[in-house]
Amino acid sequence: MPIITVFRSRLRPGVEDEYRRLANAMSELAHAMDGFLEEKLFVAADGERVTIVWFSDWASHGAWASHPEHRRAQQRGRDELYASYDLAIAEVSDHRLFEAPPA
Fold first, then answer.
1. What is the pLDDT of residues 21-47, one digit of tens each?
2. At the top level of CATH, which class does the domain 3-91 belong to?
3. Which residues, 6 or more positions from 69, have their beta carbon under 8 angstroms from its beta carbon?
């Protein structure tokens, strides 16, 4: 079963450029990990950011979660970048996809 991570966050004032650099580096790292499936980032009008990441299984998700560069980035986020965050990780037990046929 795939694993989905939903990471909701709000940044501290004035850290947007540094956050963007770190987030881009972590995105590149995640994309290179075995078992990585997909990542999407959304920013709401009120400034909340939502990142959704899919991995193929718990082992690949765990490798990402414990990767030394990712661990350092997590600590830096807590120390310098995030005003708050909310993290949810779950095994996907049901997934449905609809795509309309080409017109």
1. 999 999 999 999 999 999 999 999 999
2. alpha beta
3. 25, 26, 29
Amino acid in position 43: V
Q: Rounded CA gap, 13 and 2, in Å?
A: 35
Query: Quick one: three-class SS letters along the chain?
Result: CCEEEEEEEEECCCCHHHHHHHHHHHHHHHHHCCCEEEEEEEECCCCCEEEEEEECCHHHHHHHHCCHHHHHHHHHHHHHHEEEEEEEEEECCCCCCCCCCCC
Stated pTM of the model:
0.89
Domain spans of the chain, in order of start: 3-91
Residues 6+ apart with CB under 8 A from 37: 2, 54, 55, 56
